[in-house]
Amino acid sequence: MTAVVVIVLAGAFVALLFAGYFFTRFPRDVAALLNRVSAGARHPPVVSEEARALHARLLVADLHCDALLWERDFLERGSYGHVDLPRLLEGNVALQVLSAATKMPLLPLPTRNTGRTDSMTPLVIAQRWPRETRRSLSARALYQAARLRDAAARSNGRLLVIESAADLVSLHARREGGEAVVGTVLLLEGLHALEERLGAVDTFFEAGFRILGLVHFFDNPVGGSTHGVRRGGLTPFGRRVIDRMNELGMVVDLAHASGRLIEDALAAANRPVVVSHTGVKGHCNTGRNITDDSARAVAAAGGLIGIGFWREAVGDRDTGAIARAIRYTADLVGIDHVALGSDFDGGVRTPFDAGGISLLTQALLDEGFGEDEIAKIMGGNVFDLLARSLPRAPIATTN
After folding, report:
1. Fewer CB within a 10 Å sphere, N or C end of the chain?
2. Same domain, 255 and 153
3. Are strands 93-101 and 60-62 parallel, antiparallel or unpaired?
4. Is 241 inside any structural domain?
5. Which domain holds residue 254?
6. In angstroms, what CA-CA distances link 263 with 28, 114, 219, 224, 329?
7. Same-domain check for residues 249 and 378
């Protein structure tokens, strides 16, 4: 056997080993590496009986989670990451907004991301998503929606996809009746996934999406990202998109939006908006967070600020930092405009997973919030906004 043959065979063997790893362990290892619970960060370390009793009475709702990105069975308890149905039930979470991300820069930067690279493509291939998702961003979003519907269909009624105010009322009634059930709302993160087709708004509505995030880590044809190059306002196409969202009863999400885009979108939307996962610069001055003025403007329009659970959003990795960020924001904009925006499973490290969210109830008590205030923060405000904003019942659409 010649040296050339040996080298070729050795190379082929290494390639096979890499392919085996890439299509089996790689997605899991990436998810486990990026979505961790901070070691030693469970502060407060115990939940008092007072906090446990209060938490059991709450309607807990979280505005942002990226669990659909990872190829795990949502109905099974995972050994890594932050969210699945068993942990949502354990944490007494009533409503989880699930995001569909479709494109990410290879190395996301605080500013000046161009959108020319896409770190999601290798993950899509490794997780063996349908072939069309390799190139089509729209297909990626629709596939994630289909995965949620499949999980709901297999859940024996424990997992619901909320599409209307009537669905929300039903969820509330079932939980009040003692049923162990969790509602989910679909959010599209970044309207680059429209692929510049206005009719795609209807397509996503029909697929169950009820919240559309205008931008993600780069500028797109709808408007400017705070992490983008131009960081501009709402484009003419973006105005048409919001007009159609208004007609359908879809909620605008301004997470990742530039200051100019926030201002323009608030003027264009005819219903309250959300900033699904963020912090506020006055409390934690990072490039990821919105300004105090933007937070005030969102609140003045009846919207919600979803406070994130990761260090760049709140300044530290412990539960107390989240409570302090919530205190700052509530003092700034009013208790009726603050919500949870964990960014669970979004490539962030958090002080607890969905099963441990009662730790935050304890931290809010320690921060001096009253029970009625905690009920609003932990989910009441989200339920109220969605009840006012979602279609009363599913409606017909036209492309």
Report:
1. N
2. yes
3. parallel
4. yes
5. 45-389
6. 39, 22, 16, 11, 19
7. yes
For the domain that residue 79 is a member of, what is the CATH number? 3.20.20.140
Q: Which ranges in the chain belong to alpha helices (H)? A: 3-34, 49-57, 85-90, 120-126, 137-153, 165-176, 200-206, 236-248, 259-268, 292-300, 311-314, 319-333, 358-366, 371-375, 381-389
Amino acid residing at 248? L
Distance CA(172)–CA(166), nearest Å, equals 10
Residue 93 CB neighbours (<10 A): 26
Same domain, residue pair 19 and 57: no
* C-alpha–C-alpha distance, residues 20 and 160, integer Å: 35
Residue segments in the chain with a per-residue pLDDT below the cut of 50 = 4-10, 12-13, 16-17, 42, 397-399
Question: Residues 129-183: pLDDT tens digits?
Answer: 999 999 999 999 999 999 999 999 999 999 999 999 999 999 999 999 999 999 9
Q: How many CB atoms lie within 10 A of CB 84?
A: 23
Contact 84, 355 (CB under 8 A): no
In this structure, is residue 157 part of a structural domain? Answer: yes
Q: Which residues pair with 60 in a beta bridge?
A: 93
**Beta-carbon neighbour count of residue 14 at 10 Å?**
10
**322 burial via Cβ count (<10 Å: 0-12, 13-18, 19+):** buried
Give a yes or no: residue 396 inside a domain. Answer: no
DSSP state at residue 177: T
Q: Are residues 158 and 22 in the same domain?
A: no
Q: What is the pLDDT of residue 40?
A: 59
Nearest alpha-carbon partner for 69 in 153, 144, 161, 151: 144
How many domains in the chain? 2
Residues 11 and 131 both lie in one domain:
no
- State residue 13's pLDDT score: 43
Q: Cα–Cα distances in Å, from 150 out to 101, 132, 143, 146, 157?
A: 18, 19, 10, 6, 12
Strand, helix or coil at 315? coil
On whether the CB atoms of residues 328 and 338 are closer than 8 A, the answer is no
Q: Distance between CA 94 and CA 252 in Å, rounded? A: 22
